[in-house]
Design brief:
Blueprint: H1 2-6, H2 19-36, H3 41-57, H4 62-66, H5 79-82, H6 90-95, H7 97-101, H8 104-110, H9 118-146, H10 151-154, H11 166-179, H12 183-216, H13 223-226, H14 237-251, H15 260-285, H16 302-319, H17 336-353, H18 366-369
Helix pairs in contact: 2-12, 2-14, 3-12, 8-9, 8-12, 11-12, 12-14, 15-16, 15-17
Length: 373
């Protein structure tokens, strides 16, 4: 979209990348993320700090550019972009935006093993991430909402972004309406692209730590390979490139389907939040006398919070399986239900045939290292 707007946009004959070119850019980004994640932990830490400041200080100011054109919040017909004849499902899809925004806390959770005093610093990092991202995202969404000039024009295939990206069109209208050029929109979109870049980098980091953790417990095939840590950089390099390879494979349907991004996000989010449902559910059914709280404990609020969290996970996982556009066709098909179904079927088959015979749960090695058998 940045290239399209920078090259005289859709109306002026700007360059619009084909699916093949887009796939190449997608694969190239994953390779870059994989390479960056093979560096030493100190380098990854510096990149994470840059990511935090980048996403916190990126300019959320299109509302300033458009404040003289917009004096009230309009009610948006949610069925415009989805093709639905009813708005009953659209609000559910919109609520899912919060899952994208709050993804930052996931990285804080997965990297707790690599921090000092993780039993305290981990929860603090998670809550801080949610608080910062919530405020910044809220400001950004308000800025976009108050920058809308013509709602129907946002979805028109004849507009400057070819009706492909509503946020990009809003930003273009804001800057072009005030300065009569697209330079500001291109710069602003580059800031947003930077946020996407750092988000993808963080996702690969988090995913590699998950693969390392579960391979350390010997619960995936070829575990000895994935739990190897590079002696010099102290990074699970094999796990990083396994995650990068899986990400590349998930992107291949870009050549044939139009809802690939939605499907990739759906599959990833279901696997991501679904993993939290297991320990949360275990906490709900566990007797209070058998639970040993850590230094960061919610007290009596623990069970109500767990109940709300478990309900939210079930809800979001269900909605992510729904189609996002109508009428349903092969090109706009959300293949998340197929991908999740196949993955679950393979895991259950593997468990029934082989894994149940040898997998006994997480491997405990702290006591052994301290001399306690």
């Amino acid at each position: 979209m940045i290239i399209l707007i920078a090259t005289r946009n859709n109306k002026g004959g700007g360059y619009s990348a084909s699916k093949g070119v887009f796939l190449c850019m997608y694969l190239g980004l994953i390779i870059i993320w994989g390479v960056l994640n093979t560096f030493a932990l100190q380098v990854i830490a510096i990149l994470n700090i840059i990511s935090i400041w980048w996403q916190s200080l990126a300019p959320d100011r299109p509302n300033y550019l458009q404040r003289e054109h917009f004096s009230r919040v309009q009610t948006i017909d949610l069925s415009i972009s989805s093709g639905l004849k009813t708005n009953n499902i659209s609000p559910s899809n919109i609520v899912l935006l919060s899952n994208y925004c709050l993804y930052g806390y996931d990285a804080a959770a997965y990297l707790t093993e690599e921090t000092k005093g993780a039993d305290r610093t981990g929860p603090i990092a998670i809550l801080s991430s949610i608080g910062i991202v919530s405020l910044v995202s809220w400001a950004y969404y308000l800025a976009l909402t108050f920058s809308i000039r013509d709602l129907d024009y946002l979805y028109s295939a004849d507009n400057e972004t070819a009706g492909v990206s509503v946020p990009a069109q809003i930003i273009y209208d804001a800057f072009h309406g005030r300065y009569q050029n697209s330079t500001g929109a291109v710069v602003f979109l580059c800031f947003i692209w930077g946020s996407f870049f750092f988000c993808g980098l963080s996702v690969v980091t988090s995913a590699a730590r998950v693969v390392y953790a579960i391979s350390r417990d010997k619960c995936i095939p070829f575990s000895p390979n994935w739990r190897k840590v590079n002696r010099r950089n102290k990074v699970p390099t094999n796990a990083v490139w396994l995650c990068a390879t899986i990400g590349m494979l998930l992107g291949l349907p870009i050549l044939k389907l139009e809802a690939v991004f939605t499907a990739i996000v759906s599959v990833s989010t279901i696997g991501w939040v679904g993993g939290y449902a297991v320990p949360i559910f275990a906490r709900l059914v566990m007797a209070e006398e058998n639970f040993k709280p850590g230094p960061f404990y919610l007290g009596r609020a623990s069970r109500p919070v767990c109940f709300v969290a478990f309900f939210w996970i079930c809800y979001t996982c269900s909605v992510f399986l729904l189609p996002v556009t109508y009428p349903l066709r092969w090109k706009n098909f959300n293949y998340a239900p197929v991908a999740v179904g196949v993955a679950l079927a393979l895991v259950m088959f593997w468990w029934a045939v082989d894994a149940r015979k040898w997998f006994k749960g997480p491997v405990r090695n702290i006591d052994e290292q301290n001399g306690n058998k």
